[in-house]
Amino acid sequence: MRMRRHHQPEEDTSIDLTPMLDVVFIMLIFFIVTSSFIKEAGVEVQRPQAETASPQDKGNILIAVTADGQVWLDKKPVDIRSVRAHVERMRVEQPDGAVVVQADRDARTGLVVQVMDQARLAGVRDVALAASSGVN
């Protein structure tokens, strides 16, 4: 007697990755939308300490003034005469952004005042001076 084998259609055993990719893309979109992009001035300064220092939420344009008289903006050193133009350009991207001047505690006061003045001449009314909270 001869036996016949019946061929049954094989089931598709592959894994469908579409739902997993959907979840990954949704998570990616979520993280991009909810992340806050922190802009840095480009150089680390030793900020002076103040007991009344308070965090500021909308410091979008950061300008650093070092102890040796360099002015840093958007991660590169700039001349004091070009601070106004740089701030005006950055204000186009963030019209309601504030300017925070991060001056080193050993920076010349006159240079810090010039930087703040240039930011105000660029149309920024909210110019703050960064300080660390607490006292030595």
Q: Could you provide a short overview of the structure?
A:
The chain is α/β, with parallel strands linked by helices. It is built from three helices and seven strands. The chain has helices spanning about 20-35, 85-95, 110-120, and strands spanning about 50, 60-65, 70-75, 75-80, 100-105, 125-130, 130-135.
Structure, described:
With 136 residues, the chain is of the alpha/beta class. It has a domain at 49-133: Nucleotidyltransferase, domain 5, CATH 3.30.420.270. The chain has three helices and seven strands, in the order αββββαβαββ. The strands form two sheets. A five-stranded mixed sheet has the order 4-3-2-5-6, covered by helices on one side. It has a two-stranded parallel ribbon with strand order 1-7. β5, α3 and β6 (127-129) form a beta-alpha-beta unit. α2 packs across α3. The longest helix is centred in the N-terminal third of the chain and has 17 residues, at 18-34. The radius of gyration is 28 Å and the shape is elongated.
